[in-house]
Specification:
By secondary structure, the chain is an alpha+beta fold. It has seven helices and four strands. The radius of gyration is 18 Å and the shape is globular.
């Protein structure tokens, strides 16, 4: 069994503290070997039934990126209309994606029909496949941060339209749209906390049954 030193555990905690949802990127390119090294962490991630249901799509062409950006802009306008007053004014000022600047766009899908794993652990809770993809995304996110890269998760999207624009197989469900690149500036504080949208809880609440 591997023994981890106190220094390693402290560094791991710091890494998690400095993992941010980045929306402000420099336009500098990301070295392909470095990106591949970070993406290889998907192969190390746990998955229900060892199904490895993640499917990665590199959104790279001008047409595909323009369609994704248009999708975000439309969904963001709809989201804004759900707010009013000061909340709406604050929402309108938020920068909620780095899609224009980020050099790398990744659409991360879950293959809901994968035969791998033979359905183990997913028959009663099929959503476990998607949770497995989320775990893999988190692992990639930490690996990217350790290399100095920033990752931004864009959730303000119409997945049906995105799937149509990217010609995605019908059994794949969108889990994450990620922007990857070099952040303008590092920060250990969530941007939404900085601008007063919401505060992060300082203590974990736990109930006992």
């Amino acid at each position: 069994m591997t023994e981890f030193t106190p220094d390693f555990r402290d560094d791991l905690t710091r890494l998690m503290m400095w993992r941010r949802d980045v929306r402000r990127f420099r336009s500098d390119p990301v070295d392909e070997a470095l990106l591949s090294e970070c993406l290889d962490t998907f192969l190390l991630a746990p998955s229900v039934g060892l199904s490895q249901p993640w499917r990665l799509v590199r959104v790279q062409s001008d047409a595909a990126r323009a369609a994704a950006l248009k999708n975000y802009q439309s969904a963001n306008a709809t989201a804004l209309s759900d707010y009013s007053g000061d909340r709406a004014a604050l929402y309108a000022r938020l920068k909620l994606s780095g899609m224009r600047e980020a050099p790398v766009h990744l659409a991360i899908y879950c293959d809901e029909a994968t035969p791998k794993g033979a359905g183990l652990g997913a028959s009663s809770m099929p959503e476990m496949r998607r949770y497995s993809v989320v775990g893999a995304v988190t692992q990639f996110w930490l690996a990217a941060r350790a290399q100095g890269l920033g990752v931004g998760w864009v959730s303000i999207l119409d997945p049906v339209q995105l799937n149509r624009d990217l010609d995605i197989p019908p059994d794949w469900s969108l889990v994450a749209y990620l922007c990857v690149g070099w952040p303008e500036a590092p920060s250990d504080t969530p941007e939404l906390a900085k601008v007063g949208w919401e505060d992060r809880d300082a203590q974990l609440e736990m109930q006992t049954r």
